[in-house]
Amino acid sequence: MLLGASACRTHRVAPEVAPVPSTTPSAIVGAAPIVRAPNNIVAPRPVAPPVATGDDLARTLISVFGDTLAPVLLDAANRAGDDPVWDLDVRSYETQTRVAHYVQLFSTSGRDRFAARLSRGSRYEPMIRAKLRASGMPEDLTYLALIESGYDPHAYSRAAAVGMWQFMSGTARDVGLRVDWWMDERRDPVRSTDAAIRFLGILQRQFGSLYLAAAAYNGGPGRVARGLTRFAGEMEGSEGDDRFFALAEQDYLRAETKNYVPQLIAAALVAKMPARYGLSIDSTAPLSYDSLRVDAGTSMASVASAGGVSSATMKDLNPAILRGITPPDVSVWVKVPSGSGERTAAALDGLSSDERRGFRTVRVDGSTSATTKFADREGLTVKQLRWFNPTLKTTRSGKLIAGQLVRIPERAVFAFARDLPDPSIERYGGDRARALTRSGYHVVRRGETLGGIAKRYGMSVSRLRSLNGLRGTRLIAGQTLRVVATRVSTTTSSAKKASARKASVKKASAKKSGAKKPAVKKSTVKKQTAKTSTAAKRKTAAKP
Predict the structure, then answer these.
(1) CA-CA distances (angstroms) from residue 71 to 56, 103, 132?
(2) What is the rounded distance in angstroms from the CA atom of residue 368 to the CA atom of residue 406?
(3) Residue 388 has what DSSP assignment?
(4) Window from 138-142, 237-241, 272-276, 484-488 with minimum mean pLDDT
């Protein structure tokens, strides 16, 4: 069961996520999610029981404000105090060399950037803390998201790690996130937080230490496990979280992983005492929304119109929905502004299925010409056509294969679509890229140009641009391009070598057939002829 912003909230039809309440009293009314069941009936909001605590301040806050708002106010009170409390062991390591280095960095040259990230995180921190608390894990692990991405849901690394918690696509799927052409839940702050907590819990149980779990989160559990085995003798006597620092002293972990835990500790120290380190944090309203379930292929434009919401707001609340429509294969939960769930659900019920759907389908007939002409006929670019048809089948010459169904998107959905690389690409290159190349596609690497790609596949730049509907020359690493020639340069090289071998054999054969015969002296030939003639005459004379 997925956890909501409040650990105690449950629903008859469980939503994908639950909202986090605003700190204003008026937002408490709409704090619980509006849950839209498949039959479009809004599920009731159950009453959340209070959370037991031994702290007098916490009990008072809960009795006055309820269990969902109390953690936000308690955290604020904790920040304001001169002696904050951490649920990670930071005091034992604050004098450690690398920790002191990052405390210095975050409070001096990196102060403005650190403060900006904390300000951004104030929107998500209450939700993250509530989920960590519900799972029984330390709430200060929220600062992992600060170190990973600066609380940016759209963070994208060179290795194609995505989202606030920087998941690779394979790991994301392993912990229950959907990552495909239509949806990338690594970008959803709530769903990715659920996944990160799940992953961290697995790692903590494996290594018995939060700091080793954090190191494994960054550097991989396999590498940490091998290091603990390899350096068991050197680490003898180290226990608990000390084991991370003992392992970090060995020449084994990558520098990034060695510095990961010291950054976490330093971030927790500075973030809990911003005034002491000269930081000014501008807080934003906590993330708050209602959730409703919509049919497969629903246009986000129709949801926004039904709720009277701007496209910017809908994209902000639903960063995981990539192409302006919900996945065409399954119904999903979408988020709308807090308090608008019932109104939006009712308005959507009043629309026909065609009005809610974000596309129509057409079947390609045998007379269809090039992809560009087909797209022009439908008022689309080739790029837009491929957005909504990632498995579009074409011939090598760029013509659509007859008989296939093609989605034609409604124009309104483009305001909600994101122009992003294929989320399923784990790394640029590798098995995925090689498979695409064999299928007639090329995955763009960092630093590549249209000219270089065109040359590699034996085509002109204008042809490459035309085939992919490109207007300019700018490329994005991870972008997939259709190419005419499906053979890569290594194949071409092999063909050239084979051709050269054939030419060499042919040349050798010709040389052999045209070689001079051995020279024979004329005198010798005359003698042999004379002998033959004399022998013939003797045989004739001997006959009766």
Answers:
(1) 13, 26, 12
(2) 12
(3) S
(4) 484-488
**8 A C-beta contact, residue 62 and residue 50:** yes
CA pair distance 36, 39, nearest whole angstrom: 8
Whether 215 contacts 244, CB under 8 Å: yes
CA distance 454 to 459: 5
Residue-wise pLDDT tens digits, 454-508? 888 888 888 887 776 555 676 655 566 778 643 444 444 444 455 555 555 555 5
**pLDDT greater than 50 at residue 15:** no
Structure tokens at 319: 């960063």
Distance CA 88, CA 72 (A): 18
Residue with tokens 């959803």: 188
* Helices assigned H by DSSP within 141-220: 143-149, 169-174, 189-207, 210-219
Kindly report the pTM of this predicted structure: 0.67
Q: Say what the pLDDT of residue 456 is.
A: 86
Among 73, 39, 201, which Cα is nearest to 136's?
201
CA distance 138 to 87: 5
